[in-house]
Amino acid sequence: MVKPRQDERLSRAFKALSNPTRLRIYQQIKNKPASEPTDTGCKLVDFINSLKVGAPTVSHHIKELVNAGLIRVERQGKFMNCYLEEDMKEELRRFLE
Fold first, then answer.
1. Which of 7, 51, 62, 83 has a 20 to 30 A CA-CA distance from 69?
2. What integer pLDDT is reported at residue 4 of this predicted model?
3. pLDDT at res. 49
4. Number of C-beta neighbours around residue 51 at 10 A
5. Dihedral sign, Cα of residue 33, residue 18, residue 45, residue 75
6. The pTM is what?
7. What residues contact 91, with CB distance under 8 A and at least 6 apart?
């Protein structure tokens, strides 16, 4: 049985992922090749280049993913890196099993 608070979190996550661009961003972070250092995350510029959309659009979608608790963003020097929120990833996995 899903708890009420968990219902809200999952609902926000699924709503955010219902947008194709946000789903692709999430998948790109999730599928980052293991050969790359894990502490670098995915840079916002990578999304701009791979999705062929402008920086404001990418920023909007990143903000929605952050607000849904799916990812976090950290500044490293001049770059903004995105990382999966592992707790939410696990919560989604458990729900879908």
1. 51
2. 63
3. 84
4. 16
5. negative
6. 0.85
7. 6, 9, 10, 13
Decide: helix, strand or coil at residue 19.
Answer: coil
Give the integer Cα–Cα distance in Å for 38 and 32: 8
- The number of beta carbons lying within 10 Å of the beta carbon of residue 43 is 15
Is residue 50 within 8 A of residue 14, CB to CB? The reply is no
Q: Within 10 Å of residue 58's Cβ, how many Cβ atoms?
A: 20
DSSP conformation letters of 33-66:
-TTS-GGG-EEHHHHHHHHT--HHHHHHHHHHHH
Among residues 71, 87, 66, 58, which one has the least CA distance to residue 30?
71
End-to-end CA distance of the chain: 13
Six token digits for residue 15: 């709503």
> Is 26 exposed, middle or buried, given 0-12, 13-18 or 19+ CB atoms closer than 10 A?
buried
